[in-house]
Amino acid sequence: MMEAKTPKEFFEKMLPVRFKPDKAVGIDVVVQLNLTGADGGDWVIIIRDQKLQVKEGTVPSPTLTLKIAENDFMDIVNDKLSTEKAFFTGKINFEGNLSLALKLRDAGFL
What we know:
Elements: H1 7-18, E1 29-36, E2 41-48, E3 51-56, E4 64-69, H2 70-77, H3 83-88, E5 92-96, H4 98-106
């Protein structure tokens, strides 16, 4: 499987392929992803009507906010670190509905 080298590459090339619309039934979420580090940045991921939209930037009131170091995020998306391990070791911080975050994983986002 191809490995993403940067968050931008993941969002543009890998996420559209990994996204599973059939697992996103009933999900209506706006995720604010804040990545720290050299290739970090702020990203907005919207899943609604089984469709995925990603853009750089921020939104005023997201449904879910994720804060994580860019290198840890890349380890997660490249299957070198599990989302659960990242959460339980404090590498990823969630604000919002944790069960919704788990649904995002099933839909191919994390």
